[in-house]
Amino acid sequence: MSDAIADAKRALRAELRERRQLLTPQAREVAAAGITEQLDALIATHGATSISCFLSTTTEPGTREFVAGAVARGIRVLLPVTRTDGLLDWSVATPDLDIAEGMFGLPEPVGELLGPIAVNDVDLLVIPAAAVDRTGMRLGWGRGYFDKTIGSMERCPPVYAVVFDSEVLDEVPSDLHDQPVSGVVTPTQTIVLAPARR
To answer: How many domains are there within the chain?
Structure first.
């Protein structure tokens, strides 16, 4: 990755992180309710019975309510668990989900771990992002876990990134290893994108 792209990513991430910190608890609650509604509709549209999702941090658009509701309806939800080798293990969400702090201070499930290939069976991937642009390029938080996962899947299902409305941008800095997404979910809308294939 060129220094210019790396610098642009760092600067944009810092700005987005700061904006997220400024959101009020009420704004976060409204966003979480909107995300739940949008993701429920997305699952229905795709007829998904097995998905991957993530447990949101306090500054991310809330996904925990959605995960709990999906599990209660019998949908199989795989949650990511970070590994030191840059890959993700997966754990099946349960109604009485135990959550602990993962490697990077992120909320992760406690339970039986399935290996990285477990995600190959899902109908839909729901992943975190800092921002997504209108061509489908996603700016992550810089660790590359989801780019590696998407890039290694033989038959990748639709991939939707979850962001706040203001984080759907005209363009995000990207490099060759960055993987595009199929769409973006915000608290007010779901946008299907035609990703720029590499």
So the answer is: 1
198 falls within a domain: no
**CA 75 – CA 44 distance, rounded (Å):** 11
CATH at 169: 3.40.50.10420
Largest CA distance in the chain: 47
Sole residue written with tokens 């639709």 = 158
pLDDT at 3: 86
* Among 139, 147, 196, 194, residue whose Cα is nearest residue 172: 139
Confidence (pTM) = 0.93
Is 197 a member of any domain? Answer: no
Domain span including residue 179: 3-192
Q: What mean pLDDT is predicted for residues 171-186?
A: 91
pLDDT interval class at 113 (50, 70, 90): very high
